[in-house]
Known about the structure:
Blueprint: H1 9-14, E1 20-26, E2 28-29, H2 31-45, E3 53-57, H3 69-76, E4 83-85, H4 95-102, E5 122-127, E6 130-138, H5 150-163, E7 169-175, H6 179-189, E8 195-199, E9 209-210, E10 216-218, E11 223-226, H7 235-244, E12 257-268, E13 274-285
Amino acid sequence: MPIKRDADIASRVLSGSGDHMRILFLGDMVGKPARKVVAKFVAQRKEALDIDVVIANSDNLAHGRSVTRKTVEEMLTAGGVDILTCGDHAWDNTQALDIVKAGDLNFVCPCNLAGVDPVLSGRTFSIKDEKILAINLMGKVFIDKAIVSPFEVVDKILEANEKGEQARIIVLDFHAETTSEKKAMARYLDGRVTAVLGTHTHVQTADEEVMRAGTAYITDAGMVGIKDSILGCEESAVLEQYTAGSAFKYKLAEEGEVEVSGVIFDADEKTGLARSIERVQERILYEA
């Protein structure tokens, strides 16, 4: 499907309504340290940062791999998160898809896999009297799964939104390996969605921007996990894999400071476009 552009995009970017929603998006949360620290961070900083909505990636939420209903419920209540997205680890157990199909929790995971209804990758949630369409998709490059084109799927989701819910604020968590695929998605959707936010690498990039047609973008939001680790894992297990060629054994890092990484962006409620985006990165001591 060809890229669609509104003829008056330039005026839309410049003529916001004055009403806006300030959204905090947090990168991949890794295990219990992330769950506890995010709850603390949101409780302490939400008012100071003037945050209206909190969205967070939960791909590593349950001891570093995927989610459980219990951990999702924890983050949506005690954790102070409004919407959870996920990633490739959603398919490490059956609970992620079960939660999406049940539809009773503010959770969405990538469903652009062969044999799965791809439209499940996007759901609309009503928060503070505003409809927010949250989309979660996986990239194809270097992903060892049968992936349906995220470009085709996102078009279907946006078309369904236009015919149905008509949410103005649309946020895509694009869970992908390569910078080029993430950047391509962002350019493809510029002016059509509020934000395209990359996840999966756990390393925050320094390329946040509001693109020329009004979509906020960052290649990777980073992670919420133990700082002195390798992407949230114990260093020893990862180093043994690379130096000795041993099979990787996942061992969650659970001591020290937690790095809280993400972005805050302002969404204009009338146009659905972004006014600004800024990186967030703080360190908070984890107390088990």
